[in-house]
Fold:
Amino acid sequence: MSDLYDILDPWGPPSSGATNASAPASTGGILGVSNLEESSRRCLDNVALPVVYAVAFSAAQKAGGGRVTRDALQQTLEFSGLPRHVTGQIVLTADTGADSLAQRDFNLALAMVALAQKNMSPTLESVMFHKEDLPVPELDGVETLISSSNMHSSMPPGRGRLDAPDDPWSSASAGSGAVASSTAALGSMSLATNGTETASLPANADSAKKEHQQRTAGGDSSASQTYVPGINMDELQWKLDKEDVSIKESAEKGGIVFKHTNYEISTRSFSSMVVRRYRDFDWISNYLVTRYPYRMHANIPPKGFPDNRIKGLTRFASAILRIPFLRRDALVIQFFTNTDEFGHVLKVGNLDMEAEDIDVDDELGSTPWPEVQQTYAAFDDFYAQVARDEERYRTQITSLEKIARYKQAIGDELNVYSDTMRLINAPRESVSGSRKFHVQAASKRTLDSNLNELSMSFSDASLLEKAHGEVQKTISAEYLRRMYDVVISMKLMMDRMRRMEKRKDIQRVCERNDTNRKAMAQLNGESPGPDSDRSSIDRLERLLREDAAELQLLNHEQRCIEARFYLELARYKCYESFLQTHYHGYIEEQIKHHTMTLNAWKQALSTADDLPTDPLGFIS
Structure:
């Protein structure tokens, strides 16, 4: 989120990084921060900590060859299941710059891990505030470090060093990562039996995987068994606040006679820049619907809104590259990397326009088919829920846009108000008449000076309101639009499934097959007749074979639809993890805005208190 409102409150208590407003500039800054940080680092000295702290410290010492290095701490924190950017920030906070970390600094790191696992802020200030009620850190499998002398051999799978460049966005907020990791822990169990897609698993994925395999091998089929859908849990797809694509309108128009607008698309993950027109976006959107009819994918914005088209196309392109199976599609890669005209790419390319073939057993893994059928039986209920989500997000977006307009209006009126208080170029005294009543008194001069200062304070408040309105419109409402796009994607996919459902066709073929079988039985039960009866039997046998083949195909397609719905419904629910990022950022921006607004009005109050109050001072 924006740091526009990161300000200091001169009337409030000092915070880390803040200097005392009354202290001299030469000494108040660095010393204040150092003393506060030192007191924060000692806050756990007299706190009774759980035994996991001692066990983890011994494991880190073993991994570091007798001392807790920064790498050993990073390796230990990998067992927390938190995303790497969160553990990396904790390591940076706990590291004092020495060759090794003391147990006090190590304990602080574990305390921040415990806070992050509970979706709380992993900072020294939070540790100090919660030191009496700290949650217990969960480090599943950290004991394995004690029995291993090789640091890298015991590192959990799918994880790496702090500086491993495997994140194409290279930056992420702690809030969204913490929530995404919780969904990744769920997906790790079923991914053990589903090898169709590769995911970045959290540190505790091994233990969850082994537990699931043991439960499956033991034949546990109790009614209380919980099956986690085997979907790709690549957490990048849940980070709707991240954009891998930048789109801008090209200065050069395309076409010879009829000009059209070109768009320059820059992609960070592919390190590419291509030029496309709206027709190319529309074509790739239709291709995705044809190729992946039973999956959620991005929605292209309508062509009729040129003012918001670039924002819509950016959301569309970024959504494509967030989804793992789309990011690997050959034509999608060509769309974002091939510098030739896309029409030429389509002509020379050997494109597979057939709908994807789904291996149902491979997709579902160990999930029992009755559970899939029960989920699909509630299709209409889920459709109603998606419709309610659509209405909910649409209402929230409308409300935020209204708030943004109100903020802009308040800012404009405050600016008008501030202009009325300025007395710039006003005459100081009259050139005619009695000088006694036209010469400005000392109180009048003080009043004019302070009113000018108040005018500046009101102008600052005006800018704050306008900036807050812009944040509401460009960040908060934009994030909700991305969630709204996910809802619309789910709704459109369910509409396609309804249109392509095969249950009525299956019923029709079964009824026809029963009729043909009864006719066949009747002919076989009669005495041998003329050749016409033999031909009728042959025709019925051929029809029965055709019906059997058609029924097999229809059953396969229906199973694909039901399996895909089960998996896509799970993926749709996982997107709700992004709401933590949205609401955390929204509330954080509210706090920042109101803190800065409070400071502005406190400054204005100080100026208002200095206005002269003696009536005689204005005529003396």
